[in-house]
Amino acid sequence: MSQIVELVTFKLLPSADKGAFAQASEGVNAFVRDREGFLYRSLCENPKENSWTDIVYWRDMDAAKQAGEMFMTSELTRGFMSYIDPTSVTMRHLQVANDSGCSTTA
Length: 106
Fold this sequence. Notes:
InterPro entries: Dimeric_a/b-barrel. By secondary structure, the chain is of the alpha+beta class.
């Protein structure tokens, strides 16, 4: 199986504090580091569109799906999710077709 990139785009709730959100993102880092098949994660902001994209690389689709099932109920991710407007969330899984050979170790 090929590696999977998980792209989750969303907006923060109007009341969200960016500093607190960034701190809550560390909980997501701890969550994914403990998942089998996790390779890499970055959280990106698009200030012009007032949106965020969470990018996670997984070993394969099975690893991505298993983590996704646990994400919504984990204590480590609860704080992060509390800042997100649930109506704005879109998620896609893409197969990696080619890469630059950067390190994929967590």
